[in-house]
Backbone:
């Protein structure tokens, strides 16, 4: 019984806590079988692990293992992925089976959001694709193209609570209107396939300026991605990772142009979302 859950990139620029995209990098969460070795590369999740806490929340019994290439604390949704994985294994254990990601989507997003504090990563991790969420409701955005997603991952980490602490408690009306317009424009651009509109659509005034100020290396990577021909780029979640969309054939060259003090990954959008495998 194994849950496989994609990494995510939240906010996508202006969609603070409302937009997220699933990526082709997956965490796995499974039950530890008695007297059976753990899968290669996996580690046992103790009672304090995020996956186990989520698993217990839905009455899960037994011990879990986790295997994940998603870097922790980098803004690629590790915590959401393993929490959704723990919740899905608990659903499967109580008999909901392979259909749990669909039949119990609202329940899983509700509990994952309660644990995460915000729904953008959790909804995208469960549903796949690009997702708009209001916390209690989530819907996928139809996409008219299938780009590469180049992510630049620096060695430093970011704690979301600390990063949010740098943001002001109020937003100027002009900045709120700016971000509302850009978010709506972004959804329209994705749904219509207007890649030429993406750079304009991913501009932000609410969270990225202060976060880039705290992470000049991320700002350098963001600027380099746009300079190398990316359709658009944004600070992934609270950072410090930067994500960029571009044509598939340009992805390797774009990745090579990004600052050498970080690692790059050429990914795609995961359209399938979380899955449950096994009996």
Residues:
């Amino acid at each position: 019984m194994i849950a496989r859950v994609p990494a995510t990139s939240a906010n996508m620029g202006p969609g603070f806590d409302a937009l997220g995209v699933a990526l082709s990098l997956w965490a796995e969460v499974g039950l530890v079988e008695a007297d059976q070795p753990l899968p290669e590369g996996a580690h046992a999740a103790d009672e304090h692990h995020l996956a186990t806490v989520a698993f217990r929340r839905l009455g899960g019994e037994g011990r879990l293992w986790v295997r994940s290439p998603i870097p922790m604390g980098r803004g690629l949704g590790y915590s959401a992925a393993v929490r959704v994985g723990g919740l899905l294994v608990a659903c499967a254990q109580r008999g909901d089976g392979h259909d749990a990601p669909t039949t119990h989507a609202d329940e899983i997003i509700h509990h994952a959001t309660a644990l995460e504090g915000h729904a953008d990563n959790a909804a995208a991790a469960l549903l796949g694709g690009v997702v708009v969420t209001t916390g209690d409701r989530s819907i996928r955005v139809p996409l008219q193209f299938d780009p590469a997603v180049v992510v630049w991952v620096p060695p430093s980490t970011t704690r979301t609570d600390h990063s949010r602490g740098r943001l002001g408690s109020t937003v100027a009306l002009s900045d709120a209107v700016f971000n509302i317009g850009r978010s709506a424009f972004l959804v329209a651009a994705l749904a219509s396939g207007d890649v030429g509109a993406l750079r304009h659509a991913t501009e932000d005034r609410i969270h990225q300026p202060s976060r880039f100020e705290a992470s000049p290396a991320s700002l350098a990577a963001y600027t380099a991605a746009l300079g190398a021909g990316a359709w658009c780029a944004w600070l992934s979640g609270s950072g410090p990772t930067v994500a960029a969309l571009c044509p598939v054939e340009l992805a390797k060259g774009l990745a090579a142009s990004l600052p050498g003090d970080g690692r790059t990954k050429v990914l795609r959008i995961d359209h399938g979302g979380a899955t449950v495998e096994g009996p």
Remarks:
- Residues 173-192 form the longest helix (20 residues).
